[in-house]
């Protein structure tokens, strides 16, 4: 069984398109019913999928993309949503510098407009250059910006940190972006 393929499918369902398997995502917390998710994946993707495999995916995911609630009756993606949910994130002071990786082809537009959330609920920022490079390399040659998050924070912008350590904000105006490479 291709666990990466299932994990990608799960991300799509839990962040963007629960209707793919006809389930609801709760507005507060973005939780899905664990059994409904399993049944939906069994029906539409992998007939041998079960709780044991789901637990393995949640526990071993390299970016800790998912979490269960206490009794594992619910499961969610920790960040990355485009559907309208309230994760209950509290505003936090970010590190002085964060990073954002993007395909080279977006540079001109980003230099002009800054970072915008596009399809998702937040702009996503990485803790280090290497992770940002990886994110930027998903769809082409990567380019990495240094983001002056400390300055943004002092200027009143709000930041949130997901359970798996991804920093989120609503926008990054161009004056807070520096070229890295
Ligand atoms: C770009 C992955 C033109 C932005 C990663 C990005 C992340 C602009 C793309 C998470 C722009 C949106 C999110 C502007 C932003 N003009 N392009 N003004 N402003 N963009 O996928 O940050 O592996 O929604 O640079 O690790 O790439 O899925 O965002 O290239 O945490 O768990 O518009 O996805 O996590 O793309 O990635 P995305 P992202 P997972």
Question: How would you characterize the overall build of this protein?
Answer:
This protein is of the alpha+beta class. It has two domains: 3-77, RNA 2'-phosphotransferase, Tpt1/KptA family, N-terminal domain (Arc Repressor Mutant, subunit A, Orthogonal Bundle); 98-179, ADP-ribosylation fold (Alpha-Beta Barrel). It is built from six helices and nine strands; from the N terminus they run αβααβββαβαβαβββ. The chain has a three-stranded antiparallel sheet with strand order 1-3-2. Strands 4-6-9 form a three-stranded antiparallel sheet. The protein has a three-stranded antiparallel sheet with strand order 5-8-7, with no helix packed on it. A hairpin with a 5-residue loop joins β2 (66-68) and β3 (74-77). The relative contact order is 0.16. The mean pLDDT is 96. Residues 11, 63, 65, 80, 102-103, 106, 109-110, 113, 115-116, 118-120, 124, 135, 166 line the site of ligand HQG.
- Indicate the percent of residues in helices: 25-40%
Shape: elongated
- Please indicate the percent range of residues in DSSP E strands (runs of 2 or more): 15-25%
Overall structural domain count: 2
Characterize the largest beta sheet: strand count, sense, and whether it forms a barrel: 3 strands, antiparallel
Annotated CATH topology of the largest domain = ADP-ribosylation fold
Uncertain segments are none
* Run of helices and strands: HEHHEEEHEHEHEEE
User: Which secondary-structure class do the elements indicate?
Assistant: alpha+beta
Q: Output the CATH class name of the largest domain.
A: Alpha Beta
End-to-end gap? 39 Å
Query: Which hetero ligands occur in this complex?
Result: ligand HQG
- The total count of strands amounts to 9
Number of helices: 6
Q: In which order are the strands of the major sheet placed?
A: 1-3-2
